[in-house]
Amino acid sequence: MKQKIIIIGGGAAGFFTAITIAENNPDLEVIILEKSDKVLQKVRISGGGRCNVTHACFTPNELVEFYPRGRKELLGPFHQFMTGDTMEWFENRGVPLKIEEDNRVFPESNSSQSIMDCLTISAADAGVKLILNQNVEHIEKKNSQFVITTNSQEFIADKLVITTGNNPKLWKLIKQLGHKIISPVPSLFTFNISDNIIKEIPGVSVANATISLIDSKFETNGPVLITHWGISGPAVLKLSAYGALFLAEKNYQYSVKVNWLSKPLSTALNKLKILKRENPKKQIILRSVFKDIPKRLWEKLVIASEIKQEQRWADISNKQLESLANQLTNTIFNAYGKTTFKEEFVTAGGVDLKEINFKHFESKIHKNLFFAGEVLNIDAVTGGFNFQNAWTSGFIAGNAIAE
């Protein structure tokens, strides 16, 4: 009789694990249990429906820096299966990929359906059995096997893989098996801010601002986008990921500092003094004098510096110059709450990493119990990194099971 491998979760990590097992050991019976009537829904919506497969960072030591939680643990696994391996895996299965300017990797088709089809077809070709509408209600270890009870039937697994991502119900069942669960908190989100400087200029963006959380060590830089509800963009999302636990402890009542120029205050002030000398008759508010500051944001920063709309450079006082330099490099916002990406919701939290053997992604508590993907307390910033964790953990767990 074939050994039975049950994988709970029909997402990216689940399919990748199943395919790896089935392709490497056809003598095993591999079954995916999915709670809904659809699979790979996170793949479908990723990257605005294009699927950000991975990121073009090809050095493990550099790649781990994009993971606020899991950095140390993923270093070894990334030496076994990296971003280049992921790209080769999909391209060898007929899915050409492209690297965009920001190093994100997408299918050339610009459609997540290409990735979904690749995974589902590869699984079917390898003999993986997919059973939908299986809501797991109980997991029990009996001798060397696992008994999985769903809403409709019972399964006995010789080896069990859990790849359910951010799933509080499954975390509860995992906890009942003796594992510690790190309480989840939101990770990738935008900052809710109501402030006169930004509330009337949604859509304005700054290409390279530096943003930090006051009373913390957390600081990032990159594009910042002003929205109807506050600020967003890659720099904000990265900051929310690294500061996830700090912000949760603050109950999402926090202060943010934005340096719109990513330059010291002294540099901004010197530039303003030169402009005052060279443009005495020009009206200050009419034109942004910094190429990276859009005109609408410049106008708001000038007004916030208590400079009148009709004032010319010749009329501005040293105190007003200093105030404008401060607004350009040290705008303080009080933030209240957050806005998450609904279906693309990512959390920090999950199975405690201390309880996992990362050579195989196997439980240290129960032999033949494996975890892959975001069910673990691993999360990353945006850019394809969370998927890379799914591919790497799925590949390593799958190979360990197939041996």
Which key phrases capture this entry?
alpha+beta, 13 helices, 5-stranded parallel β-sheet, 2 domains, elongated, FAD/NAD(P)-binding domain, 6-stranded antiparallel barrel, 403 residues
What does this 3D model show about the protein?
With 403 residues, the protein is of the alpha+beta class. The chain has two domains: 4-185 and 343-402, FAD/NAD(P)-binding domain; 189-340, no CATH class. It is 34% helix and 26% strand. It is built from 13 helices and 21 strands. A six-stranded antiparallel beta barrel has the order 12-15-14-13-16-17. A five-stranded parallel sheet has the order 6-2-1-10-21, with helices on one face. Strands 3-5-4 form a three-stranded antiparallel sheet. Strand 14 (219-226) and strand 15 (230-232) form a beta hairpin. The protein is elongated and about 90 Å long.
